[in-house]
Amino acid sequence: MVGKDNLKTEDLNLCFEKLMMFGGSGIGKGGAKMEAGAITEWKDIPMELLLQIVSLVDDQTVIVVSGVCRGWRDAICLGLTHLSLSWCNKNMNDLVLSLAPKFTKLQSLILRQDKPQLEDNAVEAIANCCHDLQVLDLSKSFKLSDCSLHALAHGCPNITKLNISGCSAFSDHALAYLAGFCRKLKVLNLCGCVKAASDIALQAIGQHCNQLQRLNLGWCESVSDVGVMSLAYGCPDLRTVDLCGCVLITDDSVIALANKCIHLRSLGLYYCQNITDRAMYSLAHSRVKNKTSIWESMKGMNDEEGLKTLNISQCTALTPPAVQAVCDSFPALHTCSGRHSLIMSGCLNLMSVHCACAFHAHRTASTIPHPAH
């Protein structure tokens, strides 16, 4: 008995009715062809139709259905690639231990928790059984230790997206070890991993995870310029970097990202109070070619290029001219109502900064002829 609604195998007839209700519309659309009355009870559903139906129902029902009979279990074990257990608010650890050996073809597994339930033995079971895993969410798993990261390093080397935000017990040495094996990482959320996200770990990530595109280091207070610069040099495809609350970083981190990560689209610097105008000017000029003015370079810039989101809230050392230079270089940054992508809360001295919309509005207004008096 697991999960939020305490589903039981006695409810299978009800589950069957739900399955048939959802799956009936697909019978005549390339699914299994059946004579009228061929399916008289839930055990008669062919494997092909079962897999089609299972893709339409919730994960709780899938788990119940996998216990109907051997044929159904085998079909689901072979066909199920995505599973979320975030709805399970108790006994998640036992549930994972029982499901991991069954669902060996999983590519995406979401184990986000409101309260910590997972333990190392569950993650070890995942690593031992689910070798095709690419997406794993373990956020808020406060009970996990370095043993979990070591297991994932050996059992799931194909992970591309890993969320361990709030896993405060992991060490930086374990994270560095993981980076050495999981070299296909593209998305990594380390928000709140105060022990794991250190310069040592970031140097390992920069060395091994060259495909990384999105990284969240929010509130990892031990991160310094050494770690961020290692990332910038080792992960040139970085597009989203959240450094909010990384109080030790200085302009050198931003300059490295601006110069080395030409695909950078989003940068979070909330409460990074050591950031000065020097960092802003490096961003502003990062895409300007030699001997070419800012406005000339912007004419040929693709809409998909350049910064689209910048959070400089509480960066109180910044001045309006430097931030305005960033706005002028990247028209996708907006300060106007309803389109705030340049976030400056807590910086009253930046109230005079305006995005390209204000410039175009002023230009349009000035071209409208005044009525004759």
TrEMBL record:
SUPFAM superfamilies, alphabetized: F-box domain (SSF81383), RNI-like (SSF52047)
Assigned GO CC terms: SCF ubiquitin ligase complex
BP GO terms, sorted: SCF-dependent proteasomal ubiquitin-dependent protein catabolic process
Domain F-box/LRR-repeat protein 15-like leucin rich repeat: 76-286
Protein's recorded name: F-box/LRR-repeat protein 15-like leucin rich repeat domain-containing protein
